[in-house]
Amino acid sequence: MNLYISIVLIAICSLSSSCTKWLDLKPQDGLVEQDFWQTKEHVRSAVNGIYISLVSSNLVSSLFMHGEMRTNMVELTAFTTQMHEEYRFANLMSTNTFTNWGDFYRIINYCNNVIDNAPGVKEVDPTLLQADLDAYIGEALTIRAWMYFYLARIWGDVPLKLNYTQSDDDNLMIAKSSQEEVLAAVVADLIRAEGMVKETFATTIAADKGKVTKYTVNALLADVYLWQDDYSKALDACEMIVKSGKFELVSGDPSTWLNVLFAVGNSSEGIFELQYDRQQLNPFHNLFIQNRIYAVGGTVYESLYMIDESDPDNFDVRGDRGSLDASTGQIYKYQGINRQQRKTLEESYTHWMVYRYADVLLMKAEALNGLNEGQEAIDLIYEVRERANALDLNDLTPTEDDQATITTFLVAERAREFAYEGKRWFDVLRHARRNNYARIDLITNMVMEYAPADRQQSMLGKYRDPNSHYLPIYFTELQMNKALVQNPFYNN
């Protein structure tokens, strides 16, 4: 398993600055030099290095791909490769590089480095305050948990490594842990982190939105608890954020919504956003404009957001020139400044939203629906819809005791609200798999919407097997780690 790194690169600048200078540490036995981990500045640099790794790697491109590729939200274009087509049309093999989990484990190892080595710094540098040390470790725990949460949802059962790989000679023959065991470890990390991280950094808005806070931890906890069908705990985590009074939905005014929430970012709605800037651009201009690997799914605008033919001024702010450009089929959310102006390549630094307040409200609705509190769930869905001026044409008008219709309504609303934020596949899978895949129709209906006619039956047959919902393990991992066994659907 490629858990190790030959040279550790750690950012020495703070998140609030635009500094992109790196500290290149001399390798000792292929890894960290012995004179590191001596001062509080070393700890701060190592933690900042974790954040930099989130935006400087291929991580966000991968998060988008894994969250949208197998959904009706996107279409492939002439710029896509055979690897994209294999993923989209359920023909994945272990030789497809999109099955490589290296970026996730690389970031996990950065986190393990901090978790294992930062505590010892206090012994040699007494100026490192315990509260600051706790916060640093809590941030690393949270990001490690976030990475493992993705691994468990993308690959299912995965190796669980909770200590730093210090040497190329470390024994990396690690078998897979079950998805349930991985999620339990994720929850344990987050519960520990919740008591360690800061509520606010009290320095800049960018720090509060771009670094892990107690609100980040609780948003992630709510998400994990929903995956575990633990609705009461998910509700508690959401309530912690809601009752804080620190977040609100930004205005749905069409002239400002896109600009405030996305083009500028760090709004009152943001909870955790990956902070791109002029020195570190996001990957979306390349993915959606320059090479245009992804385009808007053919049915998204008319069937998801819908059109009021009788009143052109009545539209969902998240639709045309919100999430998408209906005239070109381009994904617009990351390139728009407002409804009229687009960003240039040099301005392609719209943040990647990890969690925002609308997500918390809809996760709370999901938890309430699971607890048979249907009316409260419906009210929260309508709160998000009203902000966006969602059209009555797609209002399913569920009743409070109709849990199935509330679920269908909620899944569709999440598609509208979080279009192209890398959440669609995970939302559909989470709801579909409950109660022994009682709602497998959420997956099969979506597949029918985008699968070519000559591939539909083959794809439906595959997606009816729950094992197909997880990716194969990349072939080089199997070659290097003899303790690994290929995932069930791909054994042959």
TrEMBL record:
Which cellular compartments is it found in?
Cell outer membrane
Main localization is membrane
Domain called RagB/SusD: residue spans: 326-490
Q: Which residues form a coiled coil?
A: none
Is Aminoacyl-tRNA synthetase set as a keyword in this record?
no
Which GO CC annotations does the UniProt entry carry? cell outer membrane
Q: Which domain of life is it from?
A: Bacteria
Q: Which family does it belong to?
A: Belongs to the SusD family.
Listed name of the protein? RagB/SusD family nutrient uptake outer membrane protein
**Organism of derivation:** Sphingobacterium alkalisoli
